[in-house]
Amino acid sequence: MSASSLSTILDDARARLAGAPRERLGELQEGRRLLGIPRAARVLPRGTAWHLGVLLLTDDALLATGDIVRSRPEVRRGFAAESQRRRAELSAAAARGGVPEGESVHIGWEVIDPAAVGASSTPVSVRDGEPFVRWSAAGGFMPLGRYLDERIELLRHPPERA
Question: The whole model's pTM is what?
Answer without folding.
Answer: 0.85
